[in-house]
Amino acid sequence: MSRRRKATTSNELIRENCEWPMTVGEVAKLTGVTPRALQIYDERGLLCPTRSGEGVANNRKLYMPEDIDRLKQIVVLKDYGFDLKEMAPILDGEVDVLEALDERLKELQAEENYLKSLILFARYAQVVGEDIFETLAFGTSEVDAFAEFLRESPVYNDRQQRWENFDDAGFERLWDDFGAIVLRFLSITGDNTFEQVEEAVAQLRAWFGENYFEIDDLDLLAPWVMFEDGSEEAEFAQAISDESTPGFLQASVFLVWLKKMLAELSARIGAQTAEESVPGNLTENEVVRLVHFVCQAVGYPVMEVAQLDREKWEDMVEFFTTILTYLIAAIDDDELMEEMYHDNQPIIGISCLEQLIDQARALELFA
Predict the structure, then answer these.
(1) Is the bond preceding 49 in cis, omega lying within 30 degrees of 0?
(2) Are residues 81 and 124 in the same domain?
(3) Full-model pTM
């Protein structure tokens, strides 16, 4: 019975085909590690080649096969992000390499999640922020200001009474469920990232509806309030991961809402192509109803049309304009549209949204 020939390792090939000992220059040429790096490894005690001896060929460093084996391990650990000070215990067998790699993998996954949250928040900041650095650092004051209307509303304050009625088990279950949702956001990876974000936002909305009050998919301000600075939910999410997590969750809610609002407006105005103007130049009543719908759907507290006065109407138009401006900025971002839609992008276009803004501003209901 034939035996499978044992594969020859790179270490064995080097041992068999190189002349030993090797100089710094020869090691650098063989491995691609610079002489300066070899010097640093020597100074740090990670790689200690023998010396040719005082007065012999300038006391050159001489490397043996075992030094090359150790150098390869240093290079691998460096590629996995280990600091030089972390390498010695691993190389010397004081720390198990598999345990060290497993711990490093967890750190890399945490870094990946952090970068992913920054990227998503940057997408959001591009849509809402006139000053992108200000938005990245402090969030958007516009949405926060609108959300304050909701925080002061009776329906929001009823939430506090509901929470006070929970027993200890119910309260613990509430936070366990919320923590599981936060972890769901933090575990998003691989392909179809935005679809995973949409699924996680749907879970978050369901949790909000169960523990606050019922909302529909177009309500932006209600779930937004959860993650304002200093809220219990923001602090809980931050404790699970890091200080960027609440902003990541807000950005996720915002972008999923944005996609749904684009779809709803496309359907409501009956647009057939992205380039066409507002169909039939909407009547005054149709524009009023559209403004009212957008404001109410997003969560802005509005009165019935019959109860409006000039000031309240102008406030609504301003809010309506802000929302449509966000949608315009999103459509204008090709990379964001590709990430959100892949193929089936919304029918409604920038020119159509701009005309809707113009028509809303042109109305003089209380002249």
Answers:
(1) no
(2) no
(3) 0.70
